[in-house]
Write a structure and sequence with these properties.
The complex is a heterodimer of chains A (114) and B (110). By secondary structure, chain A is mainly beta. Chain A has no helices and eleven strands. In chain B, strands 2, 4, 5, 9, 10 and 11 form a six-stranded mixed β-sheet that branches. Chain B has a five-stranded antiparallel β-sheet with strand order 1-3-8-7-6, with no helix packed on it. Chain B is 0% helix and 55% strand. Classes of the chains: A mainly beta (114), B mainly beta (110).
Chain lengths: 114, 110
């Protein structure tokens, strides 16, 4: 039982390049989330998927797109990377998108945009 | 923007002492409260969750919630050097939304 896994662990991009961050969970959770963490800013929600087939914007969605590929997988795409997107990206999952549900985090992807 | 405020620290306590971490939140509609621990370079991991006013104890950890004062705290008894980490307070308003504080850095000195 691996929990939440993310690939890649680390990536360097040039401005304007695109990439997809992958996330998978094996806990049979319905809800999945993408956060970014920046120094002095805390964790901020980018997009979430309450259930398979649905996605919604979070606090900071600009410059990102997501795909809920199936119940297990939720990807985050940067179409044209910008230096402002340099951050650590965490994927999380929970049994449901409900107030008392614990969110479990993956190990993170560290992204540097030059 | 619904705020979750934490003192950034660092909070330094000697080994064996009680560490007290505090968090205030602005939205009175907040329903659930979580404390996550994050070691440097690692992902957040859940320490405690609390939903009702009062205290909730789990081993060396006690979470305290006071909805009237919009205040949630985490006490760590018998602090150990391995407790040195950043502690994130997260508040769930409704459904999916977890608002995180910026975290308090805790240093436990031998």
């Amino acid at each position: 039982n691996a929990g939440v896994t993310q690939t890649p662990k680390f990536q360097v991009l040039k401005t304007g390049q695109s990439m997809t961050l992958q996330c998978a969970q094996d806990m049979n959770h319905n809800s999945m989330y993408w956060y970014r963490q920046d120094p002095g800013m805390g964790l901020r929600l980018i997009y979430y998927s309450a259930s398979e087939g649905t996605t919604d914007k979070g606090e900071v969605p600009n410059g990102y797109n997501v795909s809920r590929l199936n119940k297990r997988e939720f990807s985050l795409r940067l179409e044209s990377a910008a230096p402002s997107q340099t951050s650590v990206y965490f994927c999380a999952s929970s049994e449901a998108a409900a107030s008392q549900e614990t969110q479990y985090f993956g190990p993170g992807t560290r992204l540097l945009v030059l | 923007q619904k705020e979750v405020e934490q003192n950034s620290g660092p909070l330094s306590v000697p080994e064996g002492a009680i560490a007290s971490l505090n968090c205030t939140y602005s939205d009175r509609g907040s329903q659930s409260f979580f404390w996550y621990r994050q070691y440097s370079g690692k992902s957040p991991e859940l320490i405690m969750s609390i939903y009702s006013n009062g205290d909730k104890e789990d081993g060396r950890f006690t979470a305290q919630l006071n909805k009237a004062s919009q205040y949630v705290s985490l006490l760590i008894r018998d602090s150990q050097p391995s407790d040195s980490a950043t502690y994130l307070c997260a508040v769930n308003i409704a459904g999916y939304a977890l608002n995180f504080g910026k975290g308090t850095s805790l240093l436990v000195t031998p």
